[in-house]
Every structure is written in structure tokens, then in C-alpha cells.
Design brief:
With 756 residues, the chain is α/β, with parallel strands linked by helices. The chain is built from 29 helices and 15 strands. It folds into 3 domains: 248 residues, Rossmann fold; 375 residues, no CATH class; 29 residues. The protein starts with 6 loop residues before the first helix and ends with a helix.
């Protein structure tokens, strides 16, 4: 660990991911858009001073501000650039040698006779080698000249950002005869002299000239593609310009996916209060634990010296109290949240950008598929979508989604479209599961609602506090929470129609279908009326939950993307339970779901439908157009999968315990990945062990899965305490929870006011 200054990594080290994507050593580089570059550099004056290589860098840099710029003008003269809309001025000054002329120009900035630049980029050497035919005398003079310039640059570095660009290697075989004396050996000697002399007199780290040495590494990989053996190809100098932009702008713009050169965010008031709470919980648990240990020692069985018999203590070991269980859970949670904070808010661990390749996605998929098949066991029951099967379904889907996220496969549209089906399948299960429960049990009590809401939202609420993120940031939990409440409201409002009532009179089935049609109409209306949707969720305090970046558009987009699939899940549950009640399907062990003929026909249609959807998704060319069709057609592949999985009796009778284990903690896995497996709020990858990508993924994955499992246990334990079955006690707890959220809203308002 070299400390928290990731600028050093950005300027000096890294590697290529593929051919064109540059990865700094263990920090993330943001790809700046023109608008972002202008916002960062508004009212700034930037100077590039040097030879033709610096001129190349100058052009790549100003193209980040204005892509329409053409490389025109006198190649051996000064070139000005100005963006009047943002008051940005960038100049290239032609000084191909480090000499008295360059020194005089730099000195004029220190004396205040001309406007001082905010950013100065300097570099030159190849002309000195060329003009003096690579003589040792020229190198000696270069050292003398840099020695005279260095104090001036260090003086400027106190108030400006000063970068000395080291000389890139050349491709000697391609150099023209007039440049044959420019060898890599000579270039290394000049670079070594510059590094040794610069900052030799400066003891103040803030007054240091930043050495831009990463360009050498980039050139070593790409100089073979040079047109003349001396100048870098366009993609390489664009990378250098982007690095320069990250070095200066990350600390100003604070992009989520730009961890290089970005300072650690300050603790908010709510985070400080959370820290105090978890600290007190740990102290409280330790005190209670010590008291219990002392009591146990006092009451420990002792030997009767006269009879030699062992006497049992009069008082037995006390049972674990509710307070102790509560403190124990919060103690563990506090330690886990500390790890979350260190991983994704502190600059302790490093982060890297994602980079997609087909092998990085498909090889792990094959690997987990083999593991899943290896752990095949018989199910306890053979009903359609039984508990083991739904856990297995959630498990393998979650593992695929995790691989999708860490591999950066969202850039590959066919994979993206199939992952959208997996997210839709989760919501389908939400509709199916909750409808089945309310339809069969008829339990619309407050206890059931509170249990579900607590289990869904507990971890996310804690992370919103600890990680200082809005509720909508963890979009999937708000999505399933709102859909649960919609399902509950649809079935709970008068008239309450449940299976027991409907069995007495078939007309109640039509009443339920009428309810479902009303629900579908509301969904259709809201999906095409963005204004109405935004009005509903813009009321305070709902707006605090569903706003992201100051508006609810992101929430509307997420909701709209899978708007029909929960309804499809409810409708499927209704039809399946009706067929089951009338004994129109066979769910015995090893028996096909229908008669052999019907089963074979349905199985054939399902396989064809499944493959047809995959072919369509794989042929998608435009993400926007495919997303428009997705809500209506995703159910095709979901239903096809259910039928393929359940029609053959022998397939329905087995499940993968490996996938089912992950399925039981799928929600925790989905949420925890944001901060302790991925990094920078899912934009990058957490690096616990730099330099060993595969080993790093293995270690971080092991910790991530263990933490998710532990949080699942903590949530279950706390759910029993916070949401008791006794209605009067539950009402008191709900009042306490309401008070807690009122306090949270109050402190959140204070934070927002202080930020503004």
C-alpha cells in the first residue's frame, strides 16, 4: 500500500485491457464527455509548451472540449484555441528545445508580467538529439538547461498544475534517415536526467512538478503502429489526453467511475451518527457478554470434596435475551458495514475499470453450470415451482447476473437483452409468489406486510445511511417493494376474493379477473403517462425515496422496463392454482404434467419459443427499440422456461442444491455486490490484491458471499425481534420505526441544506 494518492498511479503506471482501453494501476479512469470537460475547465487557461509530440497531445486535449477541431496551422509555430462558451483558453507554444527561450517564457509567468496558466504541460528532447546528432555535449547542455528551468517550474507548481511529459520511445526501424540518431538509448538518458533534476530542490509536495511518465508505457505498446516511428498513433495520444483530463478534473467533477485523483468524501452527519450507534452496540454487546461469562463461571459445576461427586449448579445458564440478540446482530452488522465503507468510500482499497470480453463472461457461466449440475438432489415435493425449484431458479439467475456485472457485459447487446429477461423473471416470481400466498392463505394482516417489507428493505436502508446513497440507487429493492404493495392492494381492497371464497361460487373467479383487468389498465395508463407517474412519486416524502439526481425519471424508466411481468406472474399463479384445484394437471413424482400427447406438444412449443426469443434478442441492433418491446415479449421466454423445467416429471423431481443455496441469499448478493465485490457504486471492480486479477476475484468473491450469507442471517434474526406477531407490540414497534424515519428525514434535510 503506497498511500491514498492515486494520482501517482495514474501518471506513472498501468496496462492495456485489450487493444485500446487503458487501465491505470488499481484506480478507475473516467471517460470525459465534451460537456463534462467544459464544466471542469470553465474560465481556465491551459498551456502546452514543447515540440511536435506535445503539439499532438495539445490537439487531442482540445478535441475533448470541441471534437470538431481540425489539426491545421503552422506546425512549427504557436497555435491558439479558445472556447468562448465556457471561457476556456488553450495555447500551444512552439519551443522544441529546452533552452534559454523556453526558460524566458516560463520566467514571464512567475514574474506576473503575463497571465499565469492554470495548467502547464511541458516536454522536449528529440529536437536536441536530432540537431546535435545525438552528441554527449547536447545531453550535458540539456541537463544544465533543465537545472535552470526546474526552480521556475516548481515555483509555478505552488499555484498551478505543472506536468513534465517524459519522452516516448521511438520505433527505430521506421525512422527516416534524418532521424536515425534518435535512439531509445538516447531518449532514456534524457528522461533519466529530467526525472533526477526535477523536484530535486523541492521539499514541499504541493510545489512538485508532476512527471507524466505513463505516456512511455502506452508508447511501448503502440509505437509500432506509428506512421513515422516518432509520433504516436491517434488512439494513444487520445489516451494520454484523457489521463491528463482525469488528473485535473476528477477532484473537481468527482465522477463515480473516476477514482483516480479523487479525494475521500467527507463523513455526513447521518454517517457519524450511524458510526456512534454501531460503536455503542459493539460496546454494549461486549459488556453483556462479559457479565454472562462471569455469571457462568460463578455457577460452574464444582466437585464435592467429601463425596467426590459432581454437583450441578442451582441456577442454569440463562437463555439469550432479546437485548443480547439485538446487540449481537448490530455488533456483527457494524463490523460488516465498516468493511463496506472501507471498500467503497475510503481510499484504502483500490478499484479498476471493467473490460468486457466474450471469454470473461461465458467461461464462468459454463463453470457454474457444471458445478450446479454436479450438486443435483431430489426435491421434497414435485409441485410446479416448488420452494426448492424457485430457490434454484433465483440462484442460477443471480450468479449469471453477478458474472454479467463484473465482466462488464452490458456493452454486448445480446447478453444485455437476456439479462433483462432474468431481472423480469425475478419480478415474475414476485407476482407469482405473493399472489399465491394471499390467494391460498387469505392472510392480509399487518404482520405479514411488515415482515415482507422489513426483509426486503432492511439492508438497503442501512446502506443508504452508511454509504450515503439515495434509496432509489438500489433500484431493484424499491421495484419489488412497490410491486408487493400493488399486489397487496389489488387483493386486499373490497371485495377480498380468496380461494376459499371462490371455491363456493365460481362467479368470484370473474370478480378476481375483473380486478386484474383494472390493474392492467392502470399499469398501461401509467406507462404511457410519464407526467402522471412523476406526480404520484414527486410528493414528499415519497420523492425522498424515489428521486435520483433530483428527479424521478430513472425510477419511471426502471418501473416501465418490466411493467407487465408482475401482472403475468399473478395471472400465471391464478391459472395454475385453478388447474391444480380441478385436478387437471398431474404433479406426481416422475409423472408428466399433462397427458403424454399434450405434454410433448407443449414441450415442443416451449423449446421453439425459448429459442425464437433468444434469436430475436441476439439479433437486436438498437437497445432503445428492444427495450420498448421487452415488457411485452419477455414473458414468452419465462413461460417457456417454466414449462420446459416442469412438464417432464423426472426434471421436475430434481433440483440443484448448489444453485438453491445461492437462491436463498439472492437479494443480499444483489445488493452487496454494489460495494464489496464491484466498486465505485458498481462502475468498477474492487481490488483487494493488486497485480493478480484472478486471485483478487477469488478472494473478494469468497468474502462477498460470506458477508451476504451473514447479512441474511442477521436480517432473519432482527425480523423476529422488530416485527413480532403480537399486534399491540407490533404497533409500538411501528411507531418507533416511524419516529426513526422521521428523524432520518430531518437529518437528511439538514445535510441537504448544509451542502447547498
Amino acid at each position: 500500500f503506497k498511500g491514498g494518492d492515486t494520482c501517482e498511479y495514474l501518471l506513472s503506471s498501468g496496462r492495456f485491457l485489450g487493444e485500446k482501453v487503458w487501465q491505470p494501476h488499481s484506480c478507475m479512469m473516467h471517460k470525459y464527455k465534451n460537456s463534462e470537460a467544459k464544466n471542469c475547465l470553465v474560465d481556465k487557461y491551459i498551456v502546452f509548451i514543447g515540440d511536435s509530440r506535445i503539439r499532438q497531445l495539445f490537439y487531442s486535449f482540445i478535441k475533448l472540449i470541441n471534437p470538431q477541431v481540425k489539426e491545421e496551422g503552422n506546425k512549427h509555430g504557436n497555435i491558439p484555441f479558445e472556447d468562448k462558451s465556457a471561457s476556456i483558453k488553450v495555447d500551444f507554444l512552439w519551443y522544441p528545445e529546452v533552452n534559454g527561450s523556453m526558460r524566458q517564457r516560463i520566467k514571464s509567468w512567475t514574474e506576473g508580467s503575463v497571465a499565469k496558466p492554470h495548467i502547464i504541460v511541458v516536454g522536449a528532447a528529440t529536437w536536441s538529439i536530432k540537431i546535435h546528432n545525438g552528441s554527449n555535449e547536447a545531453l550535458t547542455q540539456y541537463k544544465i538547461n533543465i537545472t535552470s528551468i526546474a526552480p521556475l517550474l516548481e515555483k509555478l507548481a505552488k499555484s498551478s498544475d505543472v506536468y513534465w511529459v517524459l519522452q516516448d520511445p521511438v520505433y527505430e526501424d521506421m525512422l527516416s534517415d534524418s532521424r536515425k540518431m534518435i535512439t531509445n538509448e538516447k531518449i532514456d538518458a534524457y528522461n533519466e536526467a529530467a526525472v533526477r533534476i526535477l523536484n530535486s530542490s523541492s521539499r514541499n509536495s504541493k510545489a512538485k512538478v508532476k512527471v507524466f511518465s505513463v505516456s512511455k508505457l502506452i508508447a511501448q505498446e503502440t509505437i509500432m503502429k506509428s506512421a513515422d516511428g516518432l509520433h504516436l498513433p491517434e488512439s494513444s495520444r487520445d489516451t494520454n489526453a484523457m489521463i491528463l483530463m482525469n488528473v485535473y478534473c476528477n477532484k473537481i467533477m468527482k465522477p463515480i467511475d473516476g477514482s483516480c485523483c479523487q479525494p475521500e468524501p467527507p463523513l455526513t452527519l447521518i454517517q457519524k451518527l450511524a458510526f456512534c450507534f454501531f460503536t455503542l452496540s459493539i460496546i454494549g454487546y461486549l459488556i453483556i457478554n462479559l457479565i454472562h461469562r462471569n455469571n457462568f463461571r460463578k455457577n460452574k459445576s464444582c466437585t464435592d470434596l467429601e463425596s467426590g461427586e459432581e454437583k450441578k449448579p442451582a441456577i442454569s445458564t440463562p437463555n439469550v435475551s432479546t437485548l443480547e440478540m439485538l446487540l449481537h446482530s448490530f455488533c456483527k452488522l457494524g463490523l460488516i458495514m465498516t468493511y463496506f465503507y472501507l471498500c467503497d468510500r475510503a481510499n484504502l482499497f483500490m478499484k479498476e475499470n471493467k473490460f468486457y470480453t466474450h471469454s470473461s463472461f461465458f467461461i464462468p457461466i459454463v463453470y457454474i453450470l457444471v458445478l450446479g449440475v454436479f450438486y443435483t438432489e431430489n426435491t421434497k415435493e414435485t409441485k410446479v415451482l416448488n420452494r426448492e425449484q424457485t430457490d434454484e431458479w433465483k440462484g442460477w439467475m443471480q450468479l449469471v447476473i453477478l458474472i454479467y456485472h463484473i465482466s462488464g457485459a452490458s456493452t454486448f447487446l445480446p447478453v444485455y437483452m437476456h439479462i433483462r429477461v432474468l431481472v423480469a423473471a425475478y419480478l415474475f416470481q414476485t407476482g407469482y409468489g405473493h399472489f399465491s400466498y394471499f390467494w391460498i392463505k387469505g392472510d392480509f394482516g399487518v404482520y405479514r406486510v411488515c415482515q415482507v417489507l422489513f426483509r426486503l428493505n432492511f439492508l438497503v436502508v442501512v446502506l443508504c445511511i452508511v454509504m450515503d446513497r439515495p434509496y432509489q440507487f438500489y433500484y431493484f429493492v424499491p421495484l419489488v417493494t412497490v410491486w408487493f404493495m400493488i399486489i397487496y392492494a389489488t387483493l386486499a381492497i373490497w371485495p377480498q376474493i380468496v380461494q376459499k371464497k371462490a371455491n363456493g361460487n365460481c362467479l368470484w373467479h370473474f370478480g378476481l379477473l375483473l380486478k386484474l383487468i383494472c390493474l392492467l389498465t392502470c399499469i398501461y395508463f401509467l406507462s404511457y403517462s410519464q407526467g402522471a407517474f412523476e406526480k404520484i412519486f414527486s410528493f414528499w416524502p415519497l420523492s425522498k425515496c424515489f428521486e435520483l439526481n433530483g428527479n424521478v425519471y430513472e425510477w419511471w424508466f426502471r418501473w416501465k422496463l418490466d411493467r407487465y411481468v408482475v401482472f403475468h406472474g399473478m395471472l400465471f399463479a391464478f391459472i395454475y392454482l385453478a388447474l391444480q384445484k380441478r385436478q387437471m394437471i398431474s404433479e406426481g413424482k416422475g409423472d408428466p404434467l399433462f397427458s403424454n400427447r399434450v405434454s410433448n406438444v407443449l414441450l415442443f412449443i416451449s423449446i421453439v419459443s425459448f429459442l425464437t426469443y433468444s434469436i430475436w434478442a441476439s439479433s437486436c441492433k438498437n437497445k432503445t427499440e428492444c427495450n420498448e418491446l421487452h415488457p411485452s415479449v419477455s414473458v414468452v421466454q419465462i413461460l417457456a422456461f417454466i414449462l420446459i423445467r416442469n412438464i417432464p416429471g423426472y426434471v421436475r423431481s430434481v433440483y440443484s442444491s448448489f444453485f438453491a443455496w445461492f437462491g436463498k441469499i439472492s437479494l443480499e448478493l444483489f445488493i452487496c455486490q454494489y460495494h464489496i465485490w464491484l466498486a465505485a457504486d458498481t462502475k468498477g471492480i474492487l481490488v483487494l490484491i493488486p497485480g493478480y486479477p484472478m486471485f483478487n476475484v477469488l478472494v473478494s468473491t469468497f468474502i462477498f458471499v460470506c458477508v451476504a450469507h451473514e447479512i441474511s442471517q442477521i436480517t432473519n434474526d432482527l425480523a423476529q425481534i422488530v416485527v413480532p406477531k403480537d399486534n399491540s407490540t407490533l404497533l409500538k414497534r411501528l411507531l418507533c420505526i416511524a419516529g426513526f424515519f422521521s428523524g432520518l428525514l430531518f437529518f437528511s434535510a439538514m445535510q441537504d441544506q448544509s451542502r447547498h
